[in-house]
Amino acid sequence: xxxxxxxxxxxxxxxxxxxxxxxxxxxxxxxxxxxxxxxxxxxxxxxxxxxxxxxxxxxxxxxxxxxxxxxxxxxxxxxxxxxxxxxxxxxxxxxxxxxxxxxxxxxxxxxxxxxxxxxxxxxxxxxxxxxxxxxxxxxxxxxxxxxxxxxxxxxxxxxxxxxxxxxxxxxxxxxxxxxxxxxxxxxxxxxxxxxxxxxxxxxxxxxxxxxxxxxxxxxxxxxxxxxxxxxxxxxxxxxxxxxxxxxxxxxxxxxxxxxxxxxxxxxxxxxxxxxxxxxxxxxxxxxxxxxxxxxxxxxxxxxxxxxxxxxxxxxxxxxxxxxxxxxxxxxxxxxxxxxxxxxxxxxxxxxxxxxxxxxxxxxxxxxxxxxxxxxxxxxxxxxxxxxxxxxxxxxxxxxxxxxxxxxxxxxxxxxxxxxxxxxxxxxxxxxxxxxxxxxxxxxxxxxxxxxxxxxxxxxxxxxxxxxxxxxxxxxxxxxxxxxxxxxxx
Length: 489
Prior knowledge:
The protein has 489 residues and is an alpha/beta fold. The protein contains 16 helices and 13 strands.
């Protein structure tokens, strides 16, 4: 849990209160303007009611230039950010023909496969010529090629499961699978900070949902014991099925899941484990096989393994890996398999090729080098930020590192100042995070050089001083220099 300093919480609440008050005043006068203006929808209820889109109109639009920034190149270590301007106080943004070359600290390109690769790119191009960009069909009609079968076998072998099924979209992998796995009479026990795709999938399943405190195995134990003892609501019958859902790396916190402890509790109560490895598969572990490999957990102890190809593999889509019976059942019942267009053949080849690079099957050791570099880059960058006095969330080895901003005024200030100095960062605020916990989320890549990271640290350090987000005392510069010399030695 994040312990917010009292003064920081107070000033953040005051800032949001001030924005809310001014927004309400503007809405009040806006009613008079709308009353005089012509309305062509007489008799219709408004699609967007005042309070329903208040946050967007009065808070988000003020700073929307900090979000949805279009790019004009591959999301490599450096990329081109398209410049925009507004003539109506950020209500609408217009593109220009100008671009800025910026250091990329926002993309999920953990291993650098999203840019041109000497092994993956030629094979993806060859596949594009052979199969075309899309199958234009679902898997059960004409959308299954030899590549799709090869990909599923490749993924199953890579994650250490008997079988796997792949989908064309990572978000849908969670939101479409959960309603198939469990329904009314079942219980989903979900980490309080699980991804929105899990939340929507759980809600759509019709199962009862309980939440346990983020990454707290002791509270999970309490919740399971209580729910098993009480049974279903009203009838008190035993639950038909219980699934515990956790993530390998939590995308907004950068924290590693306490998987060994959670697995032990799930075994104790004979409940199923669902592991979302969207951000961990490919990025952590000696051979990139995710948190199970990193934390020494046998994949046989994880009942359902989910992951995406949009981060470490530079492609699109997601997968579910499990027993052969489970995967066969999903192929008969999952709407994302039955009705959605299958994953693009070039995207499938990109995934297969990148996995071969990781395993050294391309005849080189580039995969091992990428894995070593992402780990070194992540740990170096995290430690340097902490030494400068930033409040950085997450664990070592995680390539995701949020820098806490808190105050709403610091969100646009940090983002804009970094962009002025050619460093592109992602800022995250409500509703993606709790109201008080706005942050900048840094994503490190194996494609970043040490010079890239040092430039980013210099810029973020200067901007941090300017904006006032160094909430902890910084280490003396003399100590930092001595540590750097020792590391070089």
